[in-house]
Amino acid sequence: METKLIFLHPNQAHQAYELIQERMDWMEQNRIHQWVRGEYDKAYPESYFLVKAEAHQLVGLEEDGELLASAVILDEDPRWGKREDKALYIHCLAGDPAIHGAGRLLLKRLEEYAKENGCQYTRLDSMRTSSKLYAYYTSLCYAKVGEGEEPYYQFNLYQKELKDE
Questions:
Q1: For a FRET experiment, which of 91, 117, 128, 137 has its CA 20 to 30 Å from that of 148?
Q2: Domain limits at 157?
Q3: Alpha helices per DSSP H over the chain
Q4: Residue 141 C-beta-side C-alpha neighbours within 13 Å
Q5: CATH of the domain at 125
Q6: In the predicted model, is pLDDT for residue 32 greater than 90?
Q7: How far is C-alpha 18 from the geometric centre of its chain's CA atoms?
Q8: What is the pLDDT of residue 1?
């Protein structure tokens, strides 16, 4: 079985949204304060994922035709401000909770994709108060490099430098 990074078609956006819903349930059960039902799904409704798929910004990790994980990828991110360096910004990363390591594997594939496309970094953010996500991202060699604030969202900024190995 081979996993591969794919760009999701608009007709697959619903599957990505379902992964988000499953991950929200998992986060609640595991007391991870990041995606709160009624808030996150309001900010990122199913239509958001459809728009991102149409814009060629919704990716997934697929194995034997099954979607294991998904994410939104961007070339710029207002949370990071105007930057001169080239980075891939990752949002809405969700792995199937029943498949241990699916999100981690998607991150690895996205890092490879970013490097192949001339990016110096992969970047993401998470809720500032989420110590579990801080531990998760730092275990994957993402460094906390800043903080930010929007209405209803105080966040940490993380990046991973993509070095030649």
A1: 117
A2: 3-161
A3: 13-29, 40-43, 46-54, 102-116, 131-139
A4: 10
A5: 3.40.630.30
A6: no
A7: 15
A8: 60
